[in-house]
Model the fold of this input.
Amino acid sequence: MRTVTFIPSYRKIDVERGTTVLDAAQRAGLNMNVVCGGQGKCGKCVVYIQSGRTEFDQQKYNRFFSDAELAKGACLACETFVQGDLQVMVPDSTLIQEQKILIDGLDNEIDFHPSVRKYYVELHPPSLSDPSPDLSRLLWGIQKNGGPVAEKMYAPIEMLREIPSILRHSDWKVTATIGLVPGGYRLLDLQENDTSSRIYGAAVDLGSTTVVVYLWDLVSGKVVGVASNYNKQISCGEDILARVNFARRNGLTRLQALATESINSAITSACNTAGIDRDDIYEVIVAGNTVMTHMLLGIDPAYMIAEPYVPVVRRALSATSSRIGIACNPNGGLLTFPAVSDFIGGDIIADILACGMGEREEISLLIDIGTNFEVVLGNNEWMFSCAGAAGPALEGGEVLFGMRANPGAIEKITIDPATLTPKFSTINNLKPKGICGSGLIDLLAELLVACVIDRTGRINTDIRNPRLRKTNHFPEYVVAWAKETDIGKDIVITENDIKNLIMSKASIHAACVTLMKQAGVSHREIATIYFAGAFGNYIDKKNATTVGLIPEIEINQIKNIGNGAITGANIALINRRARKTLDSIAHKIAYIELNAENSFMDEYTSSTFLPHTDLGLFPNVQKMLETCRIRKE
Amino acid sequence: MAYDLSFGWTGTIGDVTLGATKADGGTRSTSYRIGGGTTIPFLEETAPSPTPLIAFEICDNPVLWSPIIKDYCGDLVNNPAEWAKTATNDYKADLIRLHLTSTRARNFTDIGSVGTVVESVLSATGLPLIIEGSNEPKIDSEVFLKCGEAGQGERLLLGTAEAGRYRSIAAAALAFNHSIIAQSPIDINLAKQLNILLREIGVPRDHIVIDPYTGSLGYGFEYSYSAMERIRFSALKGDTDLAMPMICSAADTLTIKEVREADPASIGDVAVAWEFYTGIAAAAAGAEIICIRHPKTIGLLREAFADMKTHPDAAEVQ
Done:
């Protein structure tokens, strides 16, 4: 065994020789940033070997490091193998930072009509003249106290085994928990005495990056606790594909356990804030994408990532939470949202529920941008959906100084068109470390408006300005000088970064247009565009239109629904009518496979222009850019 | 069976003038105005189409030029001026397209020689000139300025602008009133994008000729054809950003496997046949200028054009 010591935290772990430093770090409890899942591709898991023998191919990975960094012992944790006892320095930037996690949903009032209720009943004990069985006695009592009709309630055998003793021990004063499940009403729990004020439900957004939990008091209809944390599956690969591949190699058990652990720790911290007992949670509603849902339920997702991309199950599923390992009342129910396809999952159904587009006649366009993007177009009668990879550029990947929305990320930028001097703000007002998605979109729009880049994103190198320079590889624009930053380097955006951003925005816009063409809808007929997801929440709507990320419509008709997944889960938790519509919404949505759509590539190419090759689709942007160009000349 | 060939199109392909005669301040004996089409060419029911122009390609450094052409043209290939003269008088080309291949040599610095070559070719022929400049961003600016300067007043057609590098060539064209070849890789959207970029830095529409990029017949030409067809349809439907004449040069034709591996005795004929059929197909797709490298192809194309529904004249001679 070899001992690896990680500084500055001085965590120690003993591992076999030949283990990767990444593995050792994870086992030591460090949350490393592993975008590619440990394949040596992303260059994010940088550590510095202070002492000890390792095996690392500097030649192969030298593109990630400067000579000075290599001299200081820099290497990729995932590609470095432990040979002897080590001391490893882990820089802050390698650890997963606290991220701006979106927990707000829409502030809409939701009708409070939950699916689980408690009924306190005081029953007459049986006698020779009233010998009806315990169960009917209990169910009648519930019906008499405002519960469902006795014949419609069902008690599982596990409950029947407990009923006689609880009734007698409590002197026939009990609280019954009745849940509305797909088959009817079910007796979930029976407790002695009056506990009817203690019934809670949890709505969960199980994202591939983060987990958000809302805890509801199901008597008062109030939110009593909110918590969020990282999806711990990140240690098995940052993106979904990496995780499915992890499951293929190592089985699903670890991922299933990490999913429940992630949910449980969020539920626990929400309970702690609210001061309630987890056992009083009787229902947990989970909205997650299709792969997340499969993994949570322990269903093999392996067949979803290869053609012809079929999930095992689409419909909403309910199970007893204890079977999945969710930390709530063991008899409590777990409901997962239905899906449309592999790529349009429960999170998107939740978005639809949250924005209410499925209830209105006017046509809405819903765009959820995360690691992947999903687009839904439609109204109360029809809906089309599609999904695709936007590339990691909008989340800070494949962009030299791109980063996630962590503290220190530049999130808003304006550029003075005359001097090309930028003004920016960072998350938490720290010194800048990099640029996150919303900042990148701002940058793209501002550089275009300032005529620094042309419509294909190429930097005009004829402009003489200290912020514009040409390096060995690409021309670049300096956003922040080294002395202003936290990283001691100039923060720049290169022409190559811009190209990657344009490819990302083009695929999203092309997806919107593909759906619009499928439905025969022009951009003028779209009443509202909804942005879902964290990215959409922080993005500048005007700039998103200027660069042609979304079709041009009135700016005030573009709305952020924030975290639609949690809002949708909340709605489904406390409104049984809405919950009933889930499967029908999912069934109404037609899924368009962009890969099979011949016109998609064409739409994509015409979208790889700022804002678009067909300038007629962006009349106002075009007018604005013309003005800027003339002013510049 | 009768088809309705009116299509209801409203757009017209814009005109581009190539070459300037004395009257226009140049020294060319001929100039052409290409474009002006309102439908696809060679339809039976419509008015005759202008005959596409045939541009003969020469170069100022034949090291990499096809041996087939070197064999046929002999010593001429070492003397661009003589070559251009022969192309004008004997081969009967409509245009000369001069490739400044000398600028593609490693570490080329002799910018002055560019001007000399252009001037010598200009004085050797009265035909309008197409000039292909360097292929190296570092010297682009100087080479194009030199070409533009040497051909000032002659309404040259300068090549080739691409989305990645169009500023230096546009600057030269704007400074000396020449036109530009705008090349995009077989894609209607990319063709349009480049035209918008050129327009936005001030190149007028009547100074742009679209090169949709032409693969050899059997080696991607079907893609070129389809892109050209779409470009032309869009233009005729009213998209002014695509309403420019097109130029096709399927230079790959001389290096494809069938030509390379042909019987040495007939290799020239195979090359000519390939060049001819590619050229005629490009004309059918709507190209206004067909570039070729083998002198024998010129006669064949001319004969074929005469049998198609065309004006007796080549484009509009001014």
About this structure: Chain A has five domains: 2-94, 116-192, 202-336, 348-390+506-597, 393-501.
